[in-house]
Amino acid sequence: MIRWIKTIIRYTGIIVLHFLLLPPARILRLIHSGYRALWLISERGYDARDNGYWFYRYLRTDHPEINAYYVITKDSADRDRVSFGRKTVPYGSLRHFLMYYAADYLIGTHVQPAAPGTWTFYRLSRYGIRARGRQVFLQHGITINNVKHLHYPGLRINLFLCGARPEYEHIQSDFGHPEGVVQYTGFPRYDALYGADQREREILLMPT
Fold it and tell me: I want to staple 189 with a disulfide (CB 3.0 to 4.6 A). Which of 41, 54, 138, 164 is the partner?
């Protein structure tokens, strides 16, 4: 009973914040360059070592003209990895919420990219309570099973990236997403496995 009460309070709080913060986020997009044409990127909010990190690193080094911020907790052991360019925002902070509602693109490795709370925002999005930004699901590994919470309409995403051809065909045919959402692109972290000058063909075995 107590758990249910806490859950109701948490969801009610997020819904109230949603409607309270939408107007100021809209205003910040108009008057503040940090909130304009914003790409907000994250993994789980406390780490930077997966597809989110490698994509963010690529943007900061190869496309510094893009207004990209990385979401990460202040005490994360990985914070120094994304501190270059001073484009980080503390996970769960007021600024994170405002950027989440202001962003044009929300990009991450989990089902509600860059959200201040993955599962809370995932469940609310099923009822139309969601941010304005286009959502890009980078994933954090190859999906080989029939993962129910990745099916449409439970998961409403604008771009669902796949890292392997069989995975892409499986998700494309069985997960029910609209045409064009699921794309076979490979993963950002794969690009870091070899240097541009490498010529040898190799097989990498990486148990997890």
Answer: 54
Most confident of 2-16, 146-160, 189-203: 146-160
Calpha distance 37→160 (Å, rounded): 21
Closest to 156 measured CA to CA, from 186, 187, 111, 116: 111
Sheet holding 67-72, edge to edge: 88-90, 67-72, 38-42, 105-108, 134-137, 159-162, 182-184
Q: What domains can be seen in the chain, in order of their start residue? A: 2-193 (3.40.50.11820)
Range 163-170, long-range pairs (CB < 8 A, 24+ positions): 163/139, 163/187, 163/190, 167/142, 167/143, 170/143, 170/144
| Contact assessment for residue 143 and residue 120, using Cβ atoms and an 8 Å cutoff | no
DSSP state of 36: T
- Tokens standing for 196? 């541009």
For the stretch 10-44, what's the b/e string if a residue is b when 16 or more beta carbons lie within 10 angstroms of its beta carbon? eeeebeeebeebeeebeebbeeeeebeebbbbbbb
pTM of the model: 0.91
Among candidates 71, 78, 74, which has minimal Cα distance to 47? 78
Query: Can you tell me the distance from the alpha carbon of 92 to that of 27, in angstroms, rounded to the nearest whole number?
Result: 20
pLDDT of 195: 65
Beta pairing partners, 136: 107, 159
| Amino acid, single-letter form, for residue 184 | Y
In whole angstroms, what is the distance from residue 109 CA to residue 48 CA? 11
